């Protein structure tokens, strides 16, 4: 048998497909179609393909490069760029994204110009900032004025709709109240331009609780879902929302133990800063049995968002290339060369998918 290579990230495409299907059907019942967001899986093409075959109507990413890959393999797939376009990437935005989220008129004008050169059409969704304070117009009036201007004066750029984003920077919760403001802005925009908008996009995974609770304003007809489909950790673990038929074991990370020793739990010597310039808090718990694991912050970003499958293991720290685990309370008798597996929150999922040092292994159930 060929020796296994670690660290390895197992990706279960069938379970991602099942999750996408459940979310698509749940949203469909409320008149909402789903845009599948695959940036959290590092833009893996096969993940986008599962989202599409499960009924997601578009594929979205914050990175133009990831949309390029989709277009190369699935010309017919409608793509959406989530991050506001950089000025320097506009030619590729026009070429590879059918839709982009926007809040700057200068950029939209540059898109119009580029479209004319490429003789292509491009759809824009204007973003309204409802308090999360990342992207978007702060006032409805300014958004509506921009919408009217695009509608009246632009030939290649089409106003597809409006949208919002919450729970990303400002950790603001989507609620019936703040999403009603989006619905209201949509109504007013439609009144001004004299037609219905194609897209009223009410946010990301964090808007799903409102769908489940039946509180999402009926005006909203689109959600852009990544995390909720990909690993479905936030809704059950942070929001206490359990959607029937959803899998959590879509991603599994496994790394190998390279040292096992009993060591004090409090560092010896004068404390200063760690590998990244921070001074963490250390608790003296006496001598503990510790496993040194060959994977680090470079691979998974933040160790405190890894969840060991062996629930008696406690993760106590990491540096660029190492993870340190307290295994004193584990019932298993670990040896050097054994492996430890983890479930992942969004952060580590994103980092691990993007790391070229982590082997990806597609798991399919036959
Ligand atoms: C990343 C992103 C999403 C998807 O977020 P999830 O939490 O993964 O569902 C939606 N919209 C925008 C603008 C994003 O940047």
Query: What radius of gyration results from the CA coordinates?
Result: 23 Å
- What is the percentage of strand-forming residues? 15-25%
Helix and strand content put the structural class at alpha/beta
Order of helices and strands: EHEHEHEHEHEHEHEHEHHEEHEEEEHE
- Helical segment tally? 12
Fraction of residues in H or I helices:
25-40%
Q: Count of DSSP E strands?
A: 16
N→C terminal distance: 21 Å
Q: List each distinct ligand once.
A: pyridoxal-5'-phosphate
Which ranges are low-confidence, i.e. pLDDT below 50, for 5 or more consecutive residues?
none
Question: What would you call the shape?
Answer: elongated
For the residues shown, what is the average pLDDT? 96
The description of the largest β-sheet is: 8 strands, mixed
Descriptors for this entry?
366 residues, binds pyridoxal-5'-phosphate, eight-stranded parallel sheet, single chain, eight-stranded mixed sheet
Describe what this molecule looks like in 3D.
This protein has 366 residues and is an alpha/beta fold. It contains twelve helices and 16 strands. Strand 5, helix 5 and strand 6 (122-128) form a beta-alpha-beta unit. The longest helix is centred in the middle third of the chain and has 18 residues, at 176-193. The protein is elongated and about 70 Å long. The two termini are 21 Å apart. Pyridoxal-5'-phosphate binds next to strand 9 and helix 9.
């Amino acid at each position: 048998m060929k020796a296994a290579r670690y660290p390895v990230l197992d990706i279960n495409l069938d379970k991602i497909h099942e999750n996408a299907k459940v979310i698509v059907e749940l949203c469909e019942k409320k008149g909402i179609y789903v845009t599948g967001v695959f940036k959290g899986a590092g833009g893996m093409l096969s993940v986008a393909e599962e989202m599409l075959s499960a009924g997601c109507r578009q594929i979205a990413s914050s990175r133009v490069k990831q949309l390029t890959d989709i277009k190369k393999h699935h010309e017919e797939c409608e793509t959406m760029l989530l991050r506001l376009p950089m000025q320097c990437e506009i030619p590729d935005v026009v070429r590879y994204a059918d839709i982009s989220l926007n809040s700057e008129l200068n950029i939209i004008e540059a898109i119009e110009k580029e479209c004319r050169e490429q003789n292509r059409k491009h759809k824009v969704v204007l973003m309204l900032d409802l308090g999360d304070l990342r992207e978007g117009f702060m006032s409805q009036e300014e958004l509506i004025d921009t919408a009217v201007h695009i509608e009246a004066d632009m030939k290649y750029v089409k106003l597809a709709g409006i949208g919002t984003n919450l729970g990303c920077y400002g950790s603001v919760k989507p609620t019936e109240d703040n999403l009603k403001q989006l619905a209201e802005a949509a109504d007013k925009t439609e009144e001004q331009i004299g037609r219905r908008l194609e897209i009223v996009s009410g946010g990301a995974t964090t808007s799903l609780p409102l769908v489940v609770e039946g509180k999402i304003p009926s005006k909203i007809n689109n959600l852009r879902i990544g995390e909720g489909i990909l690993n479905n950790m936030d809704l059950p673990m942070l929001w206490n929302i359990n959607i029937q038929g959803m899998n959590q074991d879509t991603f599994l990370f496994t790394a190998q133990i390279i040292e096992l020793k009993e060591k004090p739990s409090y560092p010896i010597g004068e404390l200063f800063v760690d590998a990244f310039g921070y001074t963490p808090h250390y608790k003296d718990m006496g001598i503990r049995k510790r496993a040194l694991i060959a994977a680090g912050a470079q691979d998974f970003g933040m160790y405190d968002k890894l969840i060991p499958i062996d629930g008696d293991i406690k993760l106590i720290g990491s540096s660029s290339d190492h993870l340190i685990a307290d295994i004193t309370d584990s019932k298993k008798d670990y040896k050097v060369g054994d492996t430890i597996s983890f479930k992942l929150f969004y952060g580590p999922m994103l980092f691990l998918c993007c790391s070229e040092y982590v082997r990806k292994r597609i798991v399919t159930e036959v």
